[in-house]
Amino acid sequence: MSADDVSLKRRQALQDGPVQRLERMMEIRRVEESVLELFNDGYVRGSTHLAIGQEAVAVGLAAAARPTDMVACTYRGHGTALALGLPPEAVIGEICGRQVGCTDGLGGSMHLVEPDVGLLPTFAIVGAGIPVATGAALTAWVRGTDDAAVAVFGDGTANIGAFHESLNMAATMKLPVVFLCENNLYGEYSRIDRTTPVADIADRAAAYAMPGVVVDGQDVDAVTAAIGEALARARAGEGPTLVEAKTYRYSGHSRTDAGAYRPDGELDQWKQRDPIELGTARLLESGIATQEDVAALEASVAERVQAAVDIVLASPHPDETEILRHVLAPANR
Fold first, then answer.
1. Contact (Cβ atoms closer than 8 angstroms) between residue 159 and residue 190
2. Domain containing 123: what range?
3. Which CA distances in Å does 176 have to 9, 74, 76, 147?
4. Cα separation of 164 and 159, whole Å?
5. 326: in domain
6. Which residues are CB-contacts of 30 (< 8 A; sequence separation ≥ 6)?
């Protein structure tokens, strides 16, 4: 089975049900915990941006979208990449700069991509993915397909020009795009109430004559439903939707940020609504799974991620000659 087939199979598994979605959230959490350990052990160059606590948004998006839909997200996109279908070794390998990574170790933590499952390159520049996703939606519109695009971004991004320009263009042309705001309360180090005059980013949708939806970003089923409805509107030619998922990142902005600016007790309060714990409780209450099933799932995920880490650390770094690859187009094009 090729790497692309593995990615598509992983993506399709999310359609099977709540157990698979819980498993993928667990995997994302364990991968990012492993990335933190690898960073501390010196295997990650530069910095890296984790989204521990936001797993339900990524998995809900992947469960609702098709592999032919295109998704553009931010440098905090490891979870989105995994949810869309990239295997752990492809993500961890890229973060560690190893050839097993999804771009052969050439891009690093902020530049993940896999077009076969709809992942456009993740973007290091704040907001840069929004006009790219809008362009992908324009492509689907021009080609006459019923594919759609999703732009994933943070709350701070809603204050920059690219956000407003893209929403305006998408609404004017009724493009099939969903604007998904991961509102984790902080734009880098600044709390939203110090930078943004509205409590809900979704309120800004009204200025562009599109629906604005607020959803519980800790509830994977709620996220799946909200994005599914927005994608259905897009495919039906009804235009874009702005979806705001209320969520929270447990770590600071990057590995150099301890998050000391957060109010006392805020992190503990959000951990009481941890997306994995909520998903687990729902499975147990419904009788779909037992505590033993969940424990076995956790053990399987831990084993799979550790195996991926072993593969990554055994993989070489790119050769120096790779620095010029992908810079120039082949002469015979």
1. no
2. 3-314
3. 25, 20, 24, 7
4. 8
5. no
6. 301, 302, 305
Q: Answer yes or no: is 181 within a domain.
A: yes
Residue in the structure block whose two tokens are 């970003």: 217
Query: Does a structural domain hold residue 328?
Result: no
Angular region, 108: left φ>0, alpha ψ -120 to 50, beta rest: left
Give the strand pairing for 190-191 and 186-187.
Answer: antiparallel
Q: Number of structural domains, the chain?
A: 1
pLDDT tens digits along 263-304: 999 899 999 999 999 999 999 999 998 999 999 999 999 999
184: its two tokens: 């984790």
* pLDDT 10s digits, 51-72: 999 999 999 999 999 999 999 9
Structure tokens at 227: 């994005």
CATH of the domain at 290: 3.40.50.970
171 inside domain: yes
State which amino acid sits at residue 182: E
Structure-block tokens of residue 46: 């530069």
**Cα(81)–Cα(103) distance, integer angstroms:** 13
Residue 150 sits at φ, ψ, to 5 deg, of -130, 130
Tokens of 7: 């990615």
